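Quarterly update from the structural biology core.
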Amino acid sequence: MKIRFTIVFLILNLIVYSQVSGGQDNPESEDSGALSNALAGAQEEYLKRPLSPFADAEHKSIDRFVQEMRGPKHEKVQAALVRYGMWHERLTEEMRRHGLPEEFLALVFVESAFKPKALSRSNAGGFWQILPSTARFFKLRRDAFADDRFIPEKATKFGAWYLRELYAQFGDWHLAMAAYNLGRGNMARLIESGAPKDFFKMRNRGLLREETADYVPRILAAHRVLSDPAKYGFTKPTMDKTKYAGLVLRPLTDVTRLEILASVPTGTIRRANPGLRSEYAPPDPGGFHVFVPAKHHEALDAINLAKNAVADWGDLRDLRRIEIKIKRKMTLWKISRDYDTCLSSLRLWNKLGTEESPVPGDRIVLYIHDER
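Predicted structure, tokenized:
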């Protein structure tokens, strides 16, 4: 069994090291999904080990950050706890589905304070603060219509998978969390250089940059507060029990018009789906999946099925549909980079399979924000 896991870790170390925080831009890889599937079976038994980074974790740095949360940051922490109650159910449901303990909501707290549209100075976005380059490498959608980094379910699916991958590689949850911040490659090189495979030993020896050295203690401090807010002087958040139902919007549905025609409060769909970047559903041939409060599902679905809210091209606000004529040496990858649109969207909109590429003379359709 040890040989099997050693092989898994060697393979992981040979992967181009992508980094969720402080990451490098990587070329698109058509094989990343297949590789993760191949590794999943070999890792499954190992990942079932009932280890927790939060049980019995003690260090003076954790106590210091707890006191910081109770003192200077009390107001901000209380506001984050309110948002925690709002998004708790949707986040934990996805975490459970992908085998990540609910305790890791403490990492989300540190990354984004549970702001669904949080955006850092480095352009990392969403609950899990995923960089555009990381989103591109792992085929998360990002175009003029939608950004998976801000969709709770899709971002959490990635966050859970990536943390499990880091745990599989380093065999320790503290190191996995540190690598989420420092980067997989940087952590691997640090250990290869002789650093102890223990986060707090690394920290005590000054082997980590300050941000990473404080990152794990902040998460462990946040876990204490989230576990028992009242104990630390905070008001316990009210957990949102809203039930949601899935709805597949027709291409180019005007979501505001849909709500008005269905007599649903304006903004309902956008609030529930912070990954929507425009007022329209993407022009995907198969439609676009959103979550809506279950109590409004029937009314919204009736209007959606009747196509009464589908917009005409001439009615689009703040969006443009453009065509690009393919020239020599022009690739879908380059077009996606130039127009900040993911490859999967380009393929979807132009009905191109994963192995198909346009040739000189072909025309490619894409959609961009109108900056006029």
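Residues 1-32, 45-50 have pLDDT under 50 and may be disordered.
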